[in-house]
């Protein structure tokens, strides 16, 4: 029995790369039962992060494999908004410890084992007419096979703009729009046409015009969901925000 346990542990360590959490489902796939996992934890061969999630003892978890574990537990989870823009190099400044912006389809709370290592916020957001298993313009970062899901720059910008007046300062959003010079008009058009937020659509067009960005001239407001002919008005910490149709 001891030899079998040691053999399974060796197989686990061979299959588990440094920095990667492992779940009970992963352990079961390696023939390691829940009882055997408990034995490994008590023996100091595994560290329990939370119920059903483990790692190597004294291991420093890496962000990307940790996000892959979260993606299995949060439907539609992906890196988005300001964080996704930052990953693509669209930023105004580098924060000492930026807060990772994660978006998903359903309500939930990030586990402590993750937020203690990677300061992050999770937002349930349904900004587009889409399905959680087929998110619009969301894919593996840099198309790498073991990379987490991340918004394309065009989607990330709209996710950022949707937060203006809530938790996103308008001035910073304006500066980031000015930096988003190379957005693809066809991708942005596809997202805007399926966007459920009139504010987000109008703000994208208005800030794009203010910055005279090349992609804004390729967007026809008449084909986008800009709402009624009346101005959209909102009061926030930034003051009064008026978005014309």
Could you explain how this protein is built, in words?
By secondary structure, the chain is an alpha+beta fold. It has two domains: 2-55; 63-243, no CATH class. The chain is 37% helix and 15% strand. The strands form four sheets. The protein has a three-stranded antiparallel beta sheet. Helix 5 (81-87) runs antiparallel to helix 7 (153-162) and helix 7 packs across helix 10 (198-210).
Quick recap of the structure?
The chain has 245 residues and is of the alpha+beta class. The chain has helices at residues 2-15, 24-29, 34-42, 63-71, 81-87, 112-115, 153-162, 170-179, 185-193, 198-210, and strands spanning 22-23, 47-50, 53-55, 78-79, 100-104, 120-124, 138-140, 149-151, 232-236, 239-243.
